[in-house]
Structure formats: C-alpha cells, structure tokens
Amino acid sequence: MRIVKTASELRRSFDLAASEAKGAFGRSELYLEKHLNNPRHIEVQLIAGQRGQVVHLGERECSLQRRHQKILEETPAPQLDSTSRKKLISLALKIAKAMKYENAGTVEFVQSARGEFYYLETNKRIQVEHLITEMVTGVDIVEQQIRIADGDGLGFSQEEIEFSGAAMNCRINAEDPSRGFAPSPGRVEEFVPPGGPGIRVDTAMIDGAVIPEYYDSLIAKIASYGRMREEAIERLKGALSETIIIGVETTIPLHQAILEDKSFVRGDYHTQLLDNKISTWNFKPQLSKEEVAMLHLTTNYPLSGISTSKLERTQTRWRNNLQTEPSPRQPLFVEGL
Fold first, then answer.
1. pLDDT for 58-100, tens place per residue?
2. Helix orientation angle between 229-242 and 252-260, rounded to the nearest 10 degrees
3. Of these four, 6, 68, 169, 250, which has the most CB atoms within 10 Å of its CB?
4. How far apart are CA 238 and CA 307, in angstroms?
C-alpha cells in the first residue's frame, strides 16, 4: 500500500506499486481507495448457517497495528457508542445476507474520525483474534464452523447469545523491539506460559522448538478476560510479566508499553498510534528499584561476612540451603505404553 497525498505523486506511486505487485504476486493490477487519517479498524464476527440464518458475536477493535499488521485486539471496542455499534453490526449483517454467506467469518471496517464506516473486506475464515470473542460470549467459533461445514446448520439464535465483560489479546512474536523489530529466529530453550483467572493462552510452543526465519513469527496468543476493561488490562499485565520465553527475543516489552500508555488506557487510539509512538519508547531491559536495591546489598554486604548463627536468627522466608542437583524423579509409567 502506498499513500498518495498530492496529484503529482500519483503516477510515480502507481508505477512503483504496480511493479511491486507484479514481482510479488505475478499481477500488476491495482485499485484505489480513500485514505483516512487516524481511523479505527473495527471488525464484526459473524456465524452464518443455512437458509440465511446469520448471527453476530459483537465487534473487535483492531486499531493497534504496526505497519498495517495487528498487534493487540480487544472487545468490545472501547470508544464505540451504542448507536454506532448498532449501525456497524447492521451493515455487517446486510453484507453477509446479500452474498448468502455460510460459514464463520469476519466483516472488517475502518471508522473515520467523524464516525463514518467504510467497508474493507470479509475474511472467510477464523481470525487470529477470535479467542477474545469466545471469551465474552462463550461461543466456540471453531466448533460452530465445523458443525456448519458438516451440515448441522446454526444451532442457536441471536437472542441466545449473551455478552459479558471485556477481553483483549496480545500477539507474541519472535521480534526484537529494541532493534527495530528485527526478526529473532532460533531455538526456544524454555517456554513457560502464564495462568490464573481470566487468562487464556493459545500456542503450540514447547521447550526446544525452533522458530525459523521463513514463516510467521507468532509464538503465542495471550488473552485476558475481565468483568470490566480495567480488570482485563490488569490481568494481562500480570500474565505478560509471568511469561517466560528464553532463547529468542519477543514483543512482550511492546505489549507491556502499550498497556501502560495513557491513550490506550483511555481507549483513545487509532491505527497510526503505534507507528507514531514506538520510536519514543525504550524497549531495552530496565532494572526495577527492587533489583537495584538487591544489587547494592549484594555488593556492599556480602553473605560471607555474616555468621551462620546470625543467619539462623534472621526472620526470613528464603531457604538457606540450596539444592545443587535436582532430586531424582520416579519414572512415569502409563498403562499400554
């Protein structure tokens, strides 16, 4: 995609885009569309069965993007009022019915600063971010897609769908934010996903798995649910801080910066926000006050200078004896193997 701001730029930008399309896809056809400054990207999740049965599962806000690629999604859209929400969903349902759509699918729109909706596309598949819709509705979208494909049709009505709370999803990629998001392929030596109330992790990652440089670098999707948006944010902060991925660099620091950003916390953001702000954020590891204090104590008050009796009298919950070798574990026998 190339943005053309003046008529004098049109010919050169057109030729460049046509050349790139030809080289990448073997075809040079292009289309023009209106460019919107600072729009929001909002999509509607639909499930359409046979005989024109269509239900919606609400909308997802996908405006947090880097170079037109989604980074973090949430539902419901934080700045969408009830009138605009009804209009958006009505448009999505009309599109699905007009094309006699049958499947799970997503109808995508951009919303201008003045509140106007522009149709983007219909994704005829399961979206990466579908899990947050499942978390607020309780509907298993993948199951419904399989049932429809098997001829079962739509097994519920719009009135049976209940919306509850808020959810948001972070795409954790093998990229290094401190080096301009350079790819970080390699072997994941250790992977420990987070847990806890309201946390869901979708991943196929295991210890020792290799992330190649040839394919998508998505490692995991970490999502949170809360009764209110604020609770979902706090739970997601905790989940990201608990996640351990050793061996490759990841975009976790980016998500942590987003969750602390005042514009995001207010729900006041758009598709250009990240590209404008990323250059001002510092993604290099920073020591906390507690870590600085620990280093100071370790340097100035070495453990060797404290007597054993004094250690024993000290009220502490830390163990004084360190286990140098792991204790042997009994082998696990599974019947039939």
1. 999 999 999 889 999 999 999 999 999 999 999 999 999 999 9
2. 150
3. 169
4. 38
Our answer to whether residue 125 is catalytic in this structure is: yes
Q: Are 218 and 203 in contact (CB under 8 A)?
A: no
Annotated active-site residue in 2, 67, 125, 179:
125
The domains of the chain are located at 40-280
Q: In CATH, which of 3.30.565.10, 3.40.50.1000, 3.30.470.20, 3.40.190.10 is domain 40-280?
A: 3.30.470.20
Q: How far apart are CA 321 and CA 212, in angstroms?
A: 41
Residues 99, 124: Cα–Cα separation, whole Å: 12
Q: CB within 8 A of 97, min separation 6: which ones?
A: 52, 54
- Minimal CA–CA distance to 201: which of 217, 185, 183, 219? 219
Task: Count Cα atoms within 13 angstroms, Cβ side, for 156.
Answer: 18
Burial of 265 (0-12, 13-18, 19+ CB in 10 A): middle
Question: How far is residue 288's CA from residue 64's CA, in Å, rounded to a whole number?
Answer: 27
In this predicted structure, what is the pLDDT of residue 305? 52
Q: Look-up: residue for tokens 């250690």? A: 311
Q: Where are the alpha helices (DSSP H) in the chain?
A: 7-25, 82-98, 130-137, 141-149, 229-242, 252-260, 262-266, 273-277, 289-300, 308-313
Q: Read off the tokens for 41.
A: 């990207």
- 190: CB partners within 8 A, 6+ apart: 207, 244, 245, 246, 247
Pairing mode, strands 244-246 and 190-192? antiparallel
- Tell me the whole-structure pTM to 2 decimals: 0.81
User: DSSP 3-state assignment of 129?
Assistant: coil
